[in-house]
Fold each of these.
Amino acid sequence: MASGELAAKTVHELRALISRGEVSPLDVLDDLLARIGRLNPSVHAYLEVDPERLRRQAEGELRTAPRTGRLYGIPVTIKDNICVSGEETSCGSRILAGFRPPYDATVIERLRREGALVLPRANMDEFAFGSSTENSAFGPTRNPRAKALDRVPGGSSGGSAAAVAGDLAIAALGSDTGGSIRQPAAFCGIVGLKPTYGRVSRYGLVAFASSLDQIGPLTKDTEDAALLLSVIAGHDARDSTSAPVEVPDYVASLKESPKGLTLGLPALPGAGGLSQHVRAAVDQALKVFQSLGVKTVPVELPHIDKAIATYYIIATAEASSNLARYGGVQYGFRAMDGSSRSLLDTYLDTRSQGFGAEAKRRILLGTYVLSHGYYDAYYLKGMRVRTLIKQGFDEAFTRCDAVIMPTTPTPAFRLGEKLSDPLEMYLSDIYTISANLAGVPALSVPCGAGPDGLPIGMQLLAKPFQEATLL
Ligand code: GLN
């Protein structure tokens, strides 16, 4: 086979080839590593790759991997905030540089149990704070779908999305707190699924905002998303928020026709910022749905225009609390420049030098909204609006099976374009954030291209645990 041909295949295609004995898992890995070697220096989807070590490890793992596993021999790329035993897991942050967790996250265990080869570590915005991967402490990732590589891949799972879109990965895992799987999937022209809150265990995911975070797949097609979700979903006693809900066969459910389903069409917040190309592409997708026998109804999602404000109160509050543990004692980086005279100095210096600007901004904001005198005015009020947003979805789903909207207001923007204005950057998640606040599942799939061939994504949202309907 020609070079790059195996790297371009989907999980289900490779599974068929491997199970028929037409290619070996090491052929796949070699092809992928060669492509990564050629393209990663310009795309920077991976933070580091040591092909020789990865190949040696794979040889060892394949000796014991279950041949009948649903992912036997398939490399799966992992975002840098999911713990892989013995591998550096830095969360795109200097403060965790050098941290090697002594255990696997539950999702990693589940991948390995099905015979997958785990491929760390995809670049990301520091601690998943961002929408462009420009907040990585180790340099940005570039969108391989932009011919001049001048566009962001989205974020925070930008490394995972760029790797899949550029055939530097077969499939990847990312995490989504406010859009971090779906927005980069849309920008890179691939499929991204944020599962229902509680569908996938967060054990071993480095916490950003614990009531919003979910791990999910970024893939070349929906069949791969269904397959990966089937493997990683399910209750886990080590995550008390994971739900004891049975895992359906998501792959089998793909065969069901969408005929007879009802799609809800909401009025969109901030519609002024919606690009005409995105609007036209989603309208076109809607026509396709209608031609397949899908009905449509207008639905109201009251309060989703407050989703960004609500999110930046709740998410920063949780982040400031989760990030309190990084003080140079237990994990990663410690400031050792001789100026740290006391324990307090060590904390201050470590945090000042270890965190980037966006992480500091979030810690300050989150500490403020939780502080005495402001807690009721901000955090508590934010929690109340969150409940209203969720009730809006509950109400909408009494009238439809899924809601459709764009994933992002525009196609991928240029590197540097929104860096100096954090609020502008926050607005790129205007359509993705409410799914996290409401805890509902949401899927982004490609639905066309805008000017310069930049991909456009549409988003489908459903009731909790209705991922099968979305797929
Ligand atoms: N872009 C959003 C933020 O910066 C969402 C990120 C995410 O989902 N991790 O918080």
Amino acid sequence: MTDRLVLVINCGSSSLKFALLGEADRTPVLSGLAERLGTAEGVLNWKAGDIREQVLIADGTHRSAMAELLPLITRFAQQPLAAVGHRIVHGGEHFTGASVIDDEVIQAIKDSSTLAPLHNPAQLTGINEAMRVFEDIPHIAIFDTAFHQSMPPHAYRYALPEYLYTEHSVRRYGFHGTSHRYVSRQASLLMGMEPGHGAWLTAHLGNGCSTCAVLDGRSLDTSMGLTPLEGLVMGTRSGDVDPNLHSHLARNLGWDLERIDNMLNRESGLLGLSGLSNDMRTLVAARADGHAGASLAIDVFCYRLARSLAGLAVALPRLDGLIFTGGIGENSPLVRELTVRHLALFGLAIDPAANATPPGNPARQIQAEHSPAILVIPTDEERQIAEECLALLDFTATQSAEQEA
Ligand code: AMP
């Protein structure tokens, strides 16, 4: 079998992250990040094996950054690309899986932009620019929301008037689907179960954080909702607050919606609670030095995380394991320890030696004897996107072969 290559693109409003992945090798052939786009200081850092380089993006546009990729791909790819996979944050209710990008898909992504005004327009720019540079190759969209389209109505509906759902699409969607899907599948492999099977609670803890209840490869409930603000305490996002907070701040402090929105998304979470940083590494170090704000921020983060996991447990018929992933989930023994302490009711307990982060941070089990499985699994969203692209190509190839037969 030839080792097919997929270029995975994740476009933000001021950034462009990419990875060139082969089917067989777990390490990307080439990967990189263009940052500070939209300014005169645009810069692209890339690496391929031991080679690392930096390229200035003089005009700071997504178009120029994308154009820089073409010679790099030509240099490092041994064969033509099989597909370009695009990470898209919000697919609304239109998408339950990977979709080959055509005019209809582009329109649907535009239609979902009101639900993700910061993300979808930037990702549409990425699609347009990539389609200009990489012509005649299938471009495939992978949606963060798609994995959660299997949630039942009792999990995705808010207790709001029905017309807000039917006419204005107000419902819970969930995000980080690519990561929750990837780690739950890896968990079944790690535990020697049939691939994709099992009843899992997953905690994706990065700058954004969410939990998910996954049964046999299907999301049954998740902590994020209409937007990625709902649910857990995050780096700078508040997570759940009383919905009346908005009117309280407007009436008593005279704040307008933009100010409230900004405070909840950019000034809250670990940063707001600690008064110090949104970065868990900084907070763990400051807590060890006796910083009260850092200590409180970590305690609230872990308690609210445990509460979310306990709540999501009701979606599952049993628990085969709890999975930690994301920058914090993979790298912070303290967060895992403090969180699991609140989950003793489920019989969950950690083995301290296994919990200590080993070099290379491999996927592993960290539970104490007699506890249900507790797993640390490094996430790999680019790998998951590449695999979904190839699976879609295989599926469409089989379909057209059947039609011809
Ligand atoms: P991500 O968005 O998945 O890259 O995760 C970013 C978060 O992971 C930041 O809050 C980092 O502080 C956190 N992180 C990375 N390494 C560590 C570590 N060794 N200990 C604690 N937190 C970490």
